Amino acid sequence: MSQWIYFFDLCGTAVFALSGALAAGKHRMDPFGVIVLASVTAIGGGSIRDALIGATPVFWIRDPNYMLVILATVITCLVLVRKPHKLPPRSLSIADALGLALFTVIGAEKALLLELSGMVAVVMGLITGVGGGIIRDLLCRQIPMVLRTEIYATASIVGGICYTLSIFVGMDSMTSMLIAMFSTLIIRLSAIRWHLSLPAFDLKTKRT
Amino acid sequence: MSQWIYFFDLCGTAVFALSGALAAGKHRMDPFGVIVLASVTAIGGGSIRDALIGATPVFWIRDPNYMLVILATVITCLVLVRKPHKLPPRSLSIADALGLALFTVIGAEKALLLELSGMVAVVMGLITGVGGGIIRDLLCRQIPMVLRTEIYATASIVGGICYTLSIFVGMDSMTSMLIAMFSTLIIRLSAIRWHLSLPAFDLKTKRT
Amino acid sequence: MSQWIYFFDLCGTAVFALSGALAAGKHRMDPFGVIVLASVTAIGGGSIRDALIGATPVFWIRDPNYMLVILATVITCLVLVRKPHKLPPRSLSIADALGLALFTVIGAEKALLLELSGMVAVVMGLITGVGGGIIRDLLCRQIPMVLRTEIYATASIVGGICYTLSIFVGMDSMTSMLIAMFSTLIIRLSAIRWHLSLPAFDLKTKRT
């Protein structure tokens, strides 16, 4: 069982490292800069989570596999994805959506393992899911995805609630994870595909 | 006594959550994005403080009331403040000033409780007071208030020094808090009202 | 021996505080804003490092000398560097390069003292070296140096690898430090002087 969680965690790491590397490629960074941005995107959210709950040293210090997955992803990316026109459109958004789904579930699961409350589990899923991407976007001076009108934080919060509720009604961990991941992924991919958004909270005050 | 501190802390949380929600409203974010920005603003500074001093899990993980206050504030804000022209001008700056005063005192007080030095207490007041607002402004791609020429960090540092000195000369905690909060609030509100600023440190080098 | 490491650490603190103060001067901040930016630059990287490895309370809370060095640096800077045309060109870049070299070695050394792996030591050197500067640049809304095409992260990673390898082949700590600092400094200063850069990873996709 827990091997699956570990496998998902490494998958999420690879996918977010890829999204960081792609963002770095759009900014013409050198190979070590690519490694830095890929790492920050892949382990940023989980590092914030572990620092907040006091699970230190944080996960990637205790387990070198995370860094190795990031290095392997970046090297593969640098070697293979040289031809830009071979890159499918929206690849960065889709890699990011996949990472969001995987990391939301991992974050919620780690919180529940530590016997934290359901509300905290949802928040930890959100932090793990969106933290790395926010740091990536801040460093690249992009508007963080979480701030754009398309559904983003919502997808992670819904996934976290799905996971937490599924566990609370007694489902096994694997089923809960799959339900939560699919709900996050479907919401986020639909939002990307059809530019869905919730009604915005709109305050256009002239002066504040 | 300590109930008052707790009450002030929840007030500061509500006020900063409001300032985050108002900032989100200016960027047309969806309701879940509003919750994220309100939370980051309200608990960002205290989370950094707790992570730095090692008081983990950080405060809002141990006590669900902070998250509930944020949720209640955001929902109230979404429901009530629909009509933008009903929002008084400078409401974001004033909410921010009030949060700055409350959180500066809370941060300094927590440091002194842990028997850290007076200098560290002032710094912890500053981190608690300005941390959340800095993250809010970074995410919204605003120039962080702490960087603007108007007196901002100064108000928090003066408040922290007032609190620490008042405690050191033997005043009771409540009086010290009120003195410190009023000094921060008066300095900051005066700066907003009359656009006060200290003489700037101005380096206009052509090349660096 | 360890006095030398401590001395280097305080030197790095002073140098990064100076780079933060110079950046603040370019943004016309008031004296307390200068202190905030100088502090964040000087202790930001090390604070992230200590929070991630769980060495809390972080170093500058336990040892007031770091804050005192920052205060002394800022006051000296405010008093002396009034005349902008007296400031040599590229002074910010050079102060930053020196801080990068000093802090990279300090970060790697602290990780090895805690018996963490060589790979983690290189990463901790990188975080300590570039963390403060990234926060400084984010707050000033500059493109973070680590994102620019000139060699930057590379210099820190090479320095970290040099230090870790030197220790592993049995050199004494002092020699390893000097080797690592000089390699970081020479790489970074050469990159500044001759605008060197590694071949960039360039992805110019029209749509992502």
List the topology elements.
3 copies of one chain form a homotrimer.
Chain A: H1 2-26, H2 31-53, H3 59-62, H4 65-80, H5 91-113, H6 118-139, H7 153-168, H8 173-194
Helix pairs in contact in A: 1-2, 1-4, 1-5, 2-4, 2-6, 5-6, 5-7, 5-8, 6-7, 7-8
Question: What does this entry look like structurally?
Answer:
The structure is a homotrimer of 208-residue chains. With 208 residues, chain A is an all-alpha fold. The first copy, chain A, has one domain (2-194). Chain A contains eight helices and no strands. Chain A has helices at 2-26, 31-53, 59-62, 65-80, 91-113, 118-139, 153-168, 173-194. The termini of chain A are far apart.
Relevant terms:
mainly alpha, 73% helix, 208 residues, 8 helices, globular
- What percent strand of chain A? under 5%
Q: Considering DSSP H and I runs of 4 or more, what fraction of the residues of chain A is helical? A: over 70%
Please give the alpha-carbon distance between the first and last residues of chain A.
53 Å
**Mean pLDDT rating of chain A:** 87
Q: Main interface pair?
A: A-B, 36 and 41 residues
Low-confidence blocks of residues of chain A: none
Strands of chain A, total number: 0
Q: Spell out the helices and strands of chain A N to C.
A: HHHHHHHH
Rg calc of chain A? 17 Å
The biggest beta sheet of chain A reads: none
| Number of discrete helical segments of chain A | 8
Overall outline of chain A? globular
Q: Structural class from helices and strands of chain A?
A: mainly alpha
Structural domain count of chain A: 1
What oligomeric state is this? homotrimer
